[in-house]
Amino acid sequence: MRRKDREMDRKFGLKVIDNSSYGVLSMVDEGNEPYGIPLSIVRDGNTLYFHSAMEGRKVRVLEKNPQVSVAFVGETKVPENYSNEELEAMMKDGAKAGVLISKVFTTEFESAIVVGKVKLIENDDEKIKALRLICEKYTPTKMEFFPLAIKGGLKRTNIYSLAIEEIKAKRKKYDNNGEELKWGRNE
Known about the structure:
2 domains; alpha+beta; 6 helices
């Protein structure tokens, strides 16, 4: 990671994964072409789970090359470090261009990137467990209907696991004084 001053620990990375709406699975296909796809992903301990149809490009790619990375993006926003009056004052001082670039025309963000090897889950009990976790994350108010959905869909759905071999997390965030929180500083 180039910006070590923005690197965060594993615990932070896992939190980003858990709070992300989706992850982008990145693969290399049969023709050595990059292929990325956003997925609904859930984490259980050191394992990520996602589902798919039983055929298609993603299935073919994962059969040939299960080594992947998954990028997760957490909270992202434009910081409001200065009032309009302060910004107008900066406009009168050409030396403030650096401040504008680093603290105004920027975003706060948090992200995590996981590397690992995808495995197709064959065991029905593990498939149901993974699907339950996915549904609890994305459709928690509909869980009373889960048993019937499983009956109808389990045999038509692939479930994949990905053991987290490596996780890198990064964040850019400002404190209340407009100073960047570096080196994992939280306040």
